[in-house]
Amino acid sequence: xxxxxxxxxxxxxxxxxxxxxxxxxxxxxxxxxxxxxxxxxxxxxxxxxxxxxxxxxxxxxxxxxxxxxxxxxxxxxxxxxxxxxxxxxxxxxxxxxxxxxxxxxxxxxxxxxxxxxxxxxxxxxxxxxxxxxxxxxxxxxxxxxxxxxxxxxxxxxxxxxxxxxxxxxxxxxxxxxxxxxxxxxxxxxxxxxxxxxxxxxxxxxxxxxxxxxxxxxxxxxxxxxxxxxxxxxxxxxxxxxxxxxxxxxxxxxxxxxxxxxxxxxxxxxxxxxxxxxxxxxxxxxxxxxxxxxxxxxxxxxxxxxxxxxxxxxxxxxxxxxxxxxxxxxxxxxxxxxxxxxxxxxxxxxxxxxxxxxxxxxxxxxxxxxxxxxxxxxxxxxxxxxxxxxx
Length: 390
What we know:
It is a single chain. The protein has 14 helices and 14 strands. The protein is α/β, with parallel strands linked by helices. Strands 2-1-3-4-5 form a five-stranded parallel β-sheet. Strands 7-6-8-9 form a four-stranded parallel β-sheet, sandwiched between helices. The protein has a three-stranded antiparallel β-sheet with strand order 10-13-14. Helix 5 (107-120) links the parallel strand 3 and strand 4. Helix 10 (231-243) packs parallel to helix 11. The protein is globular and about 70 Å long. The protein starts with 5 loop residues before the first helix and ends in a 17-residue tail after the last strand.
């Protein structure tokens, strides 16, 4: 049964009443499942949204009278730091009662932790990290990913910008695996489309001042500044561009598709571009149901850009446990058979590296303080123009 079936929700009041009255129903064994993401720090909004979404999948399954087990979620904070991620992955994997987990938004943490999951035999489904190497560097049977990778993101990005007539670009990226990966795949895609990269600049993930890099970029006078990184430094770079009088288009990756980016930059966020795999949550096959049930829980904060993927990943884990039991080896084998499985993000098929191919990429532009699907925007309609648009 899917984790978002209406039947499961209908029985929720009855189940709660039965538990309160101490009804004599047979007790179910408790099974622990895990979640890891950035619950503190600059990317915490995304991480908390992911955790809430994974927890929602658990709550709905526990409300289903047909479920064989009662599930308990164990959530750990990786802070979007690779060394912390390895520590938390080790802690979770070493806890034998945790049979599987939905893990990681940040690519730098996901790639750092995959060896640990393989070593301990803990099956995981990545819910947000987009670096291709997370699934494709090794062929670990324990590692799966429900969201797509940065390859298609960057192909769509390069196609749109060059189609709009932009020809010259500067790249500024963080020096983590995430940022370097985006630089590589965007550069390759842009070259195929005839765009010219005037310069590329690597910056630290915790860097505060970008005056030196942006001064050099201003001298190069690119039409577009492509940013490969996450929201915290994206906010700082965009604000400092304005102080230096740089009028280029700010073109970001999925790493800035977050309410926190809009809030952090304020009015300067207008006309920023960004790209993310998958459809907007409200347009997903089960998006309406997911958003309704999420809202009913009164969580502090929205599910953010990747919450639906965390919900879907946890749902697949719970399905596997229901089918084969709380046995890590059997769960690994079961996840390896996932093909055309219905989830709220659409059908999921894991290839021989555990990767779900998500060919659809959504193009976004920030319009009036919100991320708007490009095709629905006044920019696409020609009513507004991007900076320097030919």
